[in-house]
Amino acid sequence: MTDAAGQVGDAAGNVGQKIAGAASDAYDATKDAGHAVEGWAEDAYHATAKTVGSFEQEVSSLIRNHPAPALLIGFGAGLLIGTLAKKV
Predict the structure, then answer these.
(1) What is the mean predicted confidence (pLDDT) over 15-20?
(2) Rounded average pLDDT over 78-82
(3) Rounded to whole angstroms, how far apart are CA atoms 80 and 74?
(4) Rg of the chain in Å (alpha carbons)
């Protein structure tokens, strides 16, 4: 009887070790995936910032070169937004 209890105890210990190992592996995999996502988000942020900066420079240049049409377009856009906001 004591031998059977010892075997059950050993089996339970082995299961506990396997569960702890699996939990550790899952933690490591999750941590690695988190680092990968963090890297992708950082790359996307930098690419977006670069694109927006380029767009801002281009719009500023366009407004400097053509101020009257830019003013009329701005006025028209404001009028359209005001009209749409009034209907809502």
Answers:
(1) 78
(2) 95
(3) 10
(4) 32
Give this prediction's pTM: 0.47
Q: Which residue has the tokens 């690695």?
A: 32
Backbone region of residue 66 per phi and psi (left: phi > 0; alpha: psi in -120 to 50; beta: other values): beta
So what's the pLDDT on residue 68? 94
Q: For residue 88, give the H/E element and its range.
A: none
What is the C-alpha to C-alpha distance for residues 67 and 78, in angstroms, rounded to an integer? 16
DSSP string, the chain: -HHHHHHHHHHHHHHHHHHHHHHHHHHHHHHHHHHHHHHHHHHHHHHHHHHHHHHHHHHHHHHHH-HHHHHHHHHHHHHHHHHHHHH-
